[in-house]
What we know:
The structure holds two protein chains of two kinds. By secondary structure, chain A is an alpha+beta fold. Helix content of chain A is 30%, strand content 30%. In chain A, the strands form six sheets. Chain A has an eleven-stranded mixed beta sheet with strand order 5-6-4-3-7-8-2-1-12-15-14. Chain B has three domains: 12-35 and 574-615; 62-256, no CATH class; 277-454. Helix content of chain B is 42%, strand content 17%. Chain B has 15 helices and 17 strands. In chain B, strand 5 (219-222) and strand 6 (227-232) form a beta hairpin.
Amino acid sequence: MASKDQTLPSLLVTLLFLLLFSALLSRISGLESVVDEKEKFSEDLLIRPLSDGKVLSHFYFKNYQRTLGSAAHTHVFPKAISQLVSKFHISELELSFTQGRWNYEHWGGLDPIASSNAKPSGVELWALFDVPLNQVDPTWRNLTHALSGLFCASINFLESPEGVASPNLIFESRLKSGADGFVRYGALPREAVCTENLTPWLKLLPCRDKAGIASLLDRPSIYNGHYHSLRVHVKRSGPERAVVLEQTLTIVLQPTQIREGGMKELPHWSLTSLFGRQLGGKCPVAHSSHVLLELEQSLVESVKASADKTGGKVTSGVDIPDNSVFHVSPYPEAVLVESLDSWDVPKFSSVMLEYDLEKYRSDQPLNLAMHWKQKMAWSSVRGPFRVSRFLTGSGNEKGSIAIEMKKNFNVSSENGDSSGGDLLEVTVFQMVPWYVRLYMHTLTARIDGNPVPLRDITTQMLVTPAEDRLHPAVLEMHLKLPRNMVSLSLTVDFDKGFLHIDEHPPDADHGFDLPAAFLSFPTSQTRRLYLNHQAADNKDSSLIQTLNEAGSLYVYTTILLVPLATPDFSMPYNVITFTCTVLALYFGSLLNTLRRRIGEEERLAKAGSGGKLKKAIAKFMEGKSENQKKLIKVSGVILVAAIGVTVSYVLEHFEAL
Amino acid sequence: MADERSTKPGSKRLWITIATILPFILGIPLWLKSTQVYRAALPFKEIDDFQTWASGNSLKLPCRLNIIIASSDELLTKPQFASVASLLAPHLQSLRPRDSPDEDESCQNGFDIQVTYDSKKVCLRSKEGLDSLYWPCGLLDYGFLRAAHLSDDILDNLFWNYAYTRTAKTNESEAGGLYTIILLHKSQFENAESFNTDADDATGTNGQSNQHKAESGSRTVVGKYRHAWIIGDLDFSSFETEVVPRVSEVARTFLGGSRSASGRSKPRNLPLSADGEAILSFSLLNAEPEDWTFDWDFEDLKRKFFQPVVDALKGVARLSLESQVLYYTPKAVKSQWDAAHNAHVVPVKQLPFFVNSNEWHLDSSTAATGRSKLLHLAVYVPGAKEYPLHFLHKNGKLSLTDGFTSPGWGGVVVYNPKNVSLLDGDIHSSAHRITAKDFESVAGVIVAQLRTLFGLPPVLQDDPQRGFFILSSARTGFAEWELDLLLRRRAVSDMAAAASTLTSLSSLVRNLPSMVIKDEIGEQVKSSLVAADAARDHAARGSYLHTAEAACEASSLAEEAFFHPSIMSVLYNPTEHHLAIYTPFFVPVLLHAVLAVIKEVSRYRREWRRFKQKRE
Lengths: 657, 616
């Protein structure tokens, strides 16, 4: 005890000195890093095993530029984006290239990743401009051209106003408050996504795919997946209008499962087996670099249940990275548990295993692997509703579009939030090209199969009627629905329009794609609050910070394919020929009736008795035997045929010349 | 059968058939009118005139040369001065720029020469012209000239001060093309020797030249502005052999620029867009960020090194700067370890393959709208495995600059980090910042590269053997007389470009009669011609800046008209299409009508003949 007492003051002194010194150091380093803090880049990879055996990989790159300035000088931030933002006065922009369809049932719908990264297939672009109203459309046109050059895609097809909407209601919650400006939204459902879009996207990263997390992106394996979504999101925020660029790539891959004796092997995976590459350290200029493995609440729950069943350990102390169900290697540096708010940790919640790439190098790569020990069934967190959209009716004349929402679970009890009272808020956004002519008076809503007057459930409805070749029809509805309903369907009838012959795409019989509708649920919050009490706050993974932010839930429907009546493309020429024949007949017969007189013609014919050729032939045939006559006739036919062949040959030869 | 008829043949049927075909014939002009495309009237004749002018001559700006003979003692008498003046004139009048046989770079009518004898007592001028304002006599009374220590730099500024502060305030834009050569008697400087040595210390670049200068006895210096001075033994007897060659050499330098070291021919076109703009895109390439990464505070470097250059070139080109830092940008050629030089070397021969276009995403900038020109200036930081990296000349010597340029594209310079010891200590996760001090040498190379890209020699070459020195502007990198030279070149090339673009446009328009030509294009062509005329007017009056502006406007308007989007999308309307549309209708219908007319006419004639026979 005595010795302790003596050492304490000296320890204190040293501590004080150390503190002072470190403060001094931080001052110096702070001075040094003034410019560094202007721009910040961080990279993260989130991996989540899905309930159907697939694996979700979410690449997340965040680039931050504090002041845009003249956008002329950049260090880590891509110059192209910063010039784009300053040139087109963009407040916010989101561009996504997607292939495949997000499976809301099996892959989840309520978590932030699904909500913001499940995109309709093809290209989707929306942007918020900080320009006066009369300049919005020219700016949008220029932007589409700039982006199509930047990303090697045909985004410039969104230039024409017939595919562009200016939505109001749906972006209300997305844009939050304080953002003023004008939004334009466009989608190209048929755009194919390929490596030629990925390469320019990678060019925006400081290390491209040479180092860091992006070095995992092996082209053959990532394009083999079931879902592939490339996203660029630019936002200006804060008092200094800092530019935040988020680049995400969401892929759902199927781990290779080997069949053994008729039984499918468990879906083991590792980074090398998924991507065929190794992860050798971080990008040198990245501020932070993390790999995260997220295990969902229901999986954790069933793991704990199975641990209980085997009866080995106490319920609270299940080792998440290594238990009776699966084994994760290597052992994570930190385990984060989802909590409802700062300190309240529920009994069962999602778990995040964190690996800091700072500790790995190319000679000592991170090969994160998950090895299943037994088959485990669980389900992902689904959204409150299952949304589908389909066409009814047949034929090339008319039909109707239906959007159907079916409840997945009892929202009020399960979701936990009771802020909306006994009403559930939904906003529906649907954009339909002008050639699908909607009849808005036929818009009907049914709740649980019974028709409901629209005014009972809508609080706000914005309809922009279509204008031929100028505007798409846009339908935005803000609905308040009773919580105890099971299903809602919205139907609207339409007539199919006729297109000009030159308005049809090259593959006209394929049909026309209607862009995906999307729904937002402002009352359902997508948020996973992972609190990391160990890490220093500035080195925290930026993806976790994003997950911690609350956002509203978005659900996209699928793309619809509408077959339109395709014309016979040779029709114009047929019409020309047919009309001209009729006219020629008319002219010919008219002139004949007006001009010719039967009596006079007969008189002349009698007097003339045949033409000169006829006379010559008759003279030639005179005095020949029957056989000779036959021979002459046959040789005449042959002569005619020979002349025909020669002429056609000469013509062909001439053409070849 | 009777071949006569008693009644007049009826013309009813004839008229009916003719009436059928008549609308078709009458419709032809209407049809031609309705299928005509809109074509704005282009001034073809004016364009042709402009082209014939441009093919014969090029835009020439006048140059004026003021030769001042300054001496305190009575050097020349009045008749002597007159003979000196008449001696100088024919020598300089027909002067051509060095190594340049064509006349493009010469001035309008050679030099306009004025010789002034400025002594303490007399002030003689060879020609009382309007230029007398530019040089009042009395230089020798100017106080500063008697200062004990005069370096070339100070002397240069002194002359500039004298010319600009003591004379009437002249418009800066009018100063272009007015050169002054001052002949000073050596004995003016009592402390001539000390002056010489001081000059060497001060200017630095002209090192090792002491002895030679003493031998030749005279010294020629071309200053940063539009002045040059010759200090020597001015003597009437040796004037022709000693002074005249020196004066003509200086004049030639003013005219065609200083000799380039390698003797390469200069690029004719400046690396600028039609409207005189260029973007200088600086890229810092970290070849191997695993070893070390370098960053820069470009705003600071720009303020210190590049903004003065941009400001100096304002009249010649509108330059804007942008910068970025790139990582993982290896070079495309392999370097070898050279033990003799203790460095990794890349032979100069392989430099064309140095730029790695796969990995160097220098990127065309989105700020570069339209047809503006982009010049890449890349600073390459080698990784640890290839440190230090140098370029090896054919003669086995290392390159002094470690940089190279590619005309029209830009330049590359290697930056070998200096503080190696520091780097060795902490090789991992080492982020460094290039300070302005470290960057100084690289910035010098970049400015030299810019000079090369603009067609000037990278560095001004002194010739100490003959006592010939050229002061280079340390701050801006471009001397004022060089800017005049660039302006002259640009005006010439702009006018030539305008003429050729307009000629191509007019021949294109004449060759494609089905092309729509909007009014806008006509307007642009007209204003381009107006600007070209204005340029010629300004050139005659000798206003450099206005001439360059007008010539630039002419060429950019011509370019705009040529690349007008409506011209770019010429409607594809082949004759086959016309044939396919018109034959199905006109052939069957007109066949009937025409046949009917022929038959009726022949029938009517036959009947008429029968009727005539009967009458006879």
